[in-house]
Amino acid sequence: MTIYRGEIYFVNLNPVQGREQSGQRPVLVISSDVINQLPLVITVIVGTKEQNIAQDYPTNIRIPAHEGGLPMETVFLGFQLRSIDHNRFTSAPIGKLSDGRMKQIDDIVRYCLGL
Fold first, then answer.
1. Sign of CA pseudo-dihedral 38, 63, 53, 103
2. Are 101 and 70 in contact (CB under 8 A)?
3. Average of pLDDT values for 50-70?
């Protein structure tokens, strides 16, 4: 399967440790398409249900239901960057975010990483 930057997938993130996000969750691919085509790992931002995040923070981005194919409003947690194996991607993407949204994501990642 070919995986592209900006696509959203549901993946199983188990097993986890500590405060890592767990279970079947939406993830947003942020690694470059060049990296995604190599037999390495895919870097993603983990999403959670909007009701789990009562307040907006500069480390997160809230995406409304149906944007990017999301079935419900989702908050992507910029501080929950994770690199995962290609084998975790077991189904087709549910959608893709626009270039404008990905620019916002880039700004959040830079903020979280102090770049």
1. positive
2. no
3. 92
Query: Residue 105 CB: number of other CB atoms within 10 A?
Result: 20
80 band by pLDDT with thresholds 50, 70 and 90: very high
Q: Which positions ≥6 away from 90 have C-beta within 8 Å? A: 11, 12
Q: What is the dihedral sign for C-alpha 37, 106, 68, 65? A: positive
Pairwise CA distance, residues 48 & 114, whole Å: 23
**DSSP string over 43-68:** EEEEEEEGGG--S--TTEEEE-TTGG
Q: Which residues contact 111 (CB under 8 A, 6 or more apart)?
A: 58, 59, 78
* Structure confidence at residue 20 (pLDDT): 66
Q: What are the boundaries of each domain within the chain?
A: 7-113
* DSSP class of 22: -
Domain 7-113 has CATH 3.30.1330.10: no
